[in-house]
From TrEMBL:
Coiled-coil stretches: none
Gene it is expressed from: rpsN
The keyword Ribosomal protein appears for this protein: yes
Gene Ontology molecular function: any one: rRNA binding
Membership in a protein family: Belongs to the universal ribosomal protein uS14 family.
Domain of life the protein comes from: Bacteria
Keyword annotations from UniProtKB, A to Z: Ribonucleoprotein, Ribosomal protein, RNA-binding, rRNA-binding
GO CC annotations, alphabetized: cytoplasm; small ribosomal subunit
Record function comment: Binds 16S rRNA, required for the assembly of 30S particles and may also be responsible for determining the conformation of the 16S rRNA at the A site.
GO-annotated biological processes: translation
Pfam families: Ribosomal_S14
UniProt-recorded name of the protein: Small ribosomal subunit protein uS14
C-alpha cells in the first residue's frame, strides 16, 4: 500500500488539472497563434507560467486504484501488476487464471 499522503497529493494534482484545463488550452492557443502580435503571445506565455505547476497534465502520474502503487501500472485495468495478480489468484477477475508450470 502506498503512503496516504502520496495518494492524496496525486488527487490534489488531478483536481488542479481539471480546474485549470480550459484556461491552459485558451492561453496555449493564443501563445501558439502565429497571426497575433509578438507582445500578445508573450503576455499569454507569462500568464501560462504564473499558473500553478501542478495544474499541468504532464505532472500527473498513474496510480493503482487498489493499492495506490505508482509503478508497473496497467492502463487498461487501472491497477498495478501486483494487485492484478492477487485478484486473479483469488478468482475475482473473470477469465483470468494464474499460470503455473
Amino acid at each position: 500500500m502506498a503512503k496516504k499522503s502520496m495518494i492524496e497529493r496525486e488527487k490534489k494534482r488531478e483536481a488542479l488539472v481539471a480546474k485549470y484545463a480550459a484556461k491552459r488550452v485558451a492561453l496555449k492557443e493564443i501563445a501558439n497563434d502565429e497571426d497575433l502580435p509578438m507582445e500578445e503571445r508573450f503576455k499569454a506565455r507569462l500568464k501560462l507560467a504564473k499558473l500553478p505547476r501542478n495544474s499541468s497534465a504532464t505532472r500527473l502520474h498513474n496510480r493503482c486504484q487498489v493499492s495506490g502503487r505508482p509503478k508497473a501500472y496497467y492502463r487498461k485495468l487501472k491497477m498495478s501488476r501486483i494487485a492484478l495478480r492477487d485478484l486473479a489468484s483469488e478468482g475475482k477477475i473473470p477469465g483470468m487464471v494464474k499460470s503455473s508450470w
